[in-house]
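User: Watch each token:
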Amino acid sequence: MAKDTTNLLPYSLEAEQSVLGSILIDKEFQFEIASKVKAEDFFVESHKFIFNAMFEILSDSKPVDLVTLIDVLSKMPSVKYDKKSGSDNLDLIQNAEKKTMLERVGNIDYLTEIIRSTPSAANYEYYVDIVKRDSVLRKLIRCSDAISKDAISSDNGTKSVAYAEKLIYDISEQLDTSSLTNVNEHVDGVLDTFQKIQSDKNYLQGLHTGFTALDDLTNGLHKGNLIILAARPSVGKTTLAMNIVENVAIRHNAVCAVFALEMTKEELTERMLCSIGGVSGQDAKKGKLDSEEWKKLWNAQKIINSTKIFIDDTSMTTIPDILSKCRRLKSMQGGKLDLIVVDHIQLMNAVKSSESRQSEITEISRGLKMIAKELEVPVIALSQLNRASETGKRRPQLSDLRESGAIEQDADIVMFIHRPDRAPTEDGEPQPKNRVEAEIIISKNRSGACESFKLLFKGEQSKFVNIVYNSPEPPAYIATPKSSSAEVDYDDGFDSSIPVGEPPAENPDEDIF
């Protein structure tokens, strides 16, 4: 590997020459080679200029050879005056402009040397890998220098860590290893998957939420999926999302990360206790619980203490923050992370501030999808709906997603919560609350049907439960016998058969975040 004595940044002169030489030699694959690298991947300045000229030729649908390359380089000035730079050294600029780019890169002699020094265009993939590798290493070295300078002058450790993570995150985001492949390479694998599903119906089941109809329609929550749960304020978005977290953590021992930008850890814990225990939160706050309800709360505490639910209630959160914390959590849990919940999108901060909130939401939405794919975990992101969704008594629809259509585009599943009881009657009075049924509308589902189903909403207990028609259904947590004679029954999610003892000893959660 060649080294500049005044600059220790890694690069390979031979590999860079061979990439450029391969483009000149191999007419069949020159566009493919050029698409795998960028000008910034080259270290030698003249190589950047040569590559830019090559790409300009290819962009005009012309072949790159010695003749076309010389023609373009000879017409390009070696320096362009940039008014924004504020440079006033006009003599230097005017003298430089007298030279063409061809002269600056070493004239025809150097171009022929590049061709002559290329061993074989057939090995271009290896040359490209070397150039890309050295490019990444140089970026890392420059990042480390920037991080060192920031750390020396910084008076805020948290901001410096975020700055360092952002720099590294940007480099990793630029790494693109995907490529076009022939579909026939995947046929055997797909058929093999179908055969396994045929013999085992649960082979491709995702994470089951505990809500039967939702699991039937989506086949569970799958790794890499972005699930949007949207509704107007105070309809039950957080409640439904946390119920899913409770169910997967209790039933499947899932590791769950919850990013609450609106509520505190204590408020969410309070809701979970009441939901799992089947106790009224209002009665608990007013000191109206009886001895039986206290027993339910102690049992709920035992259940929660055995789960792996981690909550971060930082209000100023960005995509890099979430990615960094989830990587750390996944590492601490032995590589296991099963579900991420973000509550909610509109409260998140964009890394790149913009005058348009729509542009920021687009960045956030795309970032959440990237997190789901990179960490191989389903992400449930809550979203607000615009006020138009409250017009009349209509059901919410995709166009009601607030501030950006990118949310709809990036999502694999979009669900809405529709509560008819929230809409006033014709005489302006609230709907009766003795039987609150919520309709869950799936308006987008990449891997299944777009249908709706109903859940019973128990607001006082902060929970949604399954509605069971004609036959009993196991509760969300532990099976409880129910009478099968009832025409309509509800899955209340609490097992009164759990042995009751003294209040369990304190077991404070480890602060992962």
Q: What stands out?
A: Residues 1-6, 81-93, 470-510 have pLDDT under 50 and may be disordered. The domain at 13-142 is CATH 1.10.860.10 (DNAb Helicase; Chain A). Residues 30 and 319 are 37 Å apart (CA to CA). The beta strands are 226-231, 255-260, 308-312, 339-343, 379-384, 413-418, 437-445, 452-458, 463-469, 488-490.
